[in-house]
Structure formats: structure tokens, C-alpha cells
Specification:
Shape: globular
Helix content: over 70%
Radius of gyration: 19 Å
Number of helices: 11
Distance between the termini: 41 Å
Number of strands: 0
Strand content: under 5%
Length: about 210
């Protein structure tokens, strides 16, 4: 049996992951899957490894193909992501703020630990700014509600700011995805965007192991 070479395997996998394949799925099913992923991404720490920003981008590309309606996509993304943030804030305020070393059971890399300390410091002095800006950045979107729950920020204030931030985030990324979806070259490149991400993640992991 012939074994395909690496370029052929990468090309084949890229075609499997082509966004155009998602147009075959029913819109309600897509929205349910997206809602679950976004609630988990911002509501639970496992969201640190989920592709949060790529989800509304992908929906925007489906909007460009005519498979989804723009307003429906924006509403699902905004409501789901905001709901996850509210869940994380409520659970952290009830049970105490969770920090990564406690969850992972081991020390954090120096860079990540410094970044987390900075997030705590800024949350104490600028909680509303962190609530808005944090929702725009993958990873920070998962941790910010937990950190903010340990500040004096009121739940009602966090809800108001979170709704605004999630809506702005949804509109921006769905719009960008729609623009990308209208361009065949950009749409094809997006289908292969996972390759450098995987390479960087593997390289970072190997580098951390070499330091042990």
C-alpha cells in the first residue's frame, strides 16, 4: 500500500478542515455547537485550550457563503460568550478566585506567571478596562472573569461591561470572517492556519521540556 508523503497528508487534512464543508450542516446545529464551545471557552478553565477567536471568524466566513445570517451569528456569539463570562464570575465569587498553579498542580512558566500577576494588579486598579479588553483576547477572556471576581467590581457592573464587550467582540470578528470569506485566497489560507499554530505549540512544549 502506498504511503502518502507529508505534503499530500497536509493538503488532504486541509481540505477536510475547509470551512466550506460546514455549509452542509444545518444552521441550528452549528449554532448549538458554537454556543456550547463559547460558553465553555469563557466559562471554564479548559477554555484556555479552545479556539475561541476562530469560532466567530468561521461563522463570519459561513455568513459570506450565505449559509448563515449575520445577525443570527453575532447574537449567538455575543450571548454565548457573555454567558460563559457570567458563569465564571459567579462561580469564582462564590468559591474563591482560581489561579492557574492551583488548578495545574505545578508551577507556571515564568512568563505566564508574570502575565498572571500583571492581570491581578491591573484588575484591582482598572477592573472595567480589564473586563472590556480582556474579552477581546483569547486566554485572557477565560481568566479575566475569575480575577475580576476577587475585586470590588459589582456583579451588575461586570454584567453591563461584559455584555458590551462580548457584543463588540462578536461584531468585529464575525465581520472580519465575512471579509475573509469573500476572498478565495484568504479563505484557503485560513483553512491551513492551524499548521503554524501547531508547530509553535509543539516547539514551545519541546523548549520547556529541554529546560527541565
Amino acid at each position: 500500500m502506498d504511503i502518502p508523503d507529508l505534503p499530500s497528508m497536509v493538503t488532504g487534512l486541509g481540505r477536510m478542515l475547509d470551512v466550506d464543508n460546514l455549509t452542509l450542516a444545518p444552521a441550528p446545529l452549528l449554532f448549538v455547537v458554537v454556543a456550547v464551545l463559547l460558553v465553555v471557552e469563557s466559562g471554564y478553565l479548559i477554555g484556555l485550550v479552545l479556539p475561541g477567536n476562530s469560532i466567530p471568524l468561521t461563522l463570519g466566513m459561513l455568513v459570506a457563503s450565505g449559509a448563515l445570517h449575520t445577525v443570527h451569528a453575532v447574537v449567538v456569539v455575543a450571548v454565548s460568550s457573555c454567558a460563559g463570562a457570567q458563569l465564571a464570575f459567579a462561580r469564582a465569587r462564590r468559591h474563591g478566585t482560581c489561579v492557574l498553579p492551583e488548578v495545574l498542580g505545578r508551577p507556571l512558566p515564568d512568563r505566564v506567571a508574570a502575565w498572571q500577576r500583571w492581570l491581578h494588579e491591573q484588575s484591582d486598579s482598572r477592573p472595567r478596562s480589564i473586563a472590556v479588553c480582556g474579552h477581546m483576547i483569547g486566554g485572557v477572556r477565560t481568566l479575566a472573569p475569575r480575577v475580576l471576581a476577587g475585586t470590588r467590581l459589582r456583579r451588575s457592573d461586570f454584567t453591563m461591561v461584559s455584555v458590551a464587550a462580548a457584543t463588540l467582540w462578536a461584531i468585529a470578528l464575525v465581520s472580519v470572517g465575512s471579509i475573509v470569506g469573500d476572498n478565495e485566497v484568504l479563505r484557503t489560507a485560513y483553512g491551513f492556519a492551524w499548521i503554524p499554530v501547531v508547530l509553535v505549540a509543539v516547539g514551545s512544549r519541546l523548549r520547556d521540556r529541554s529546560r527541565l
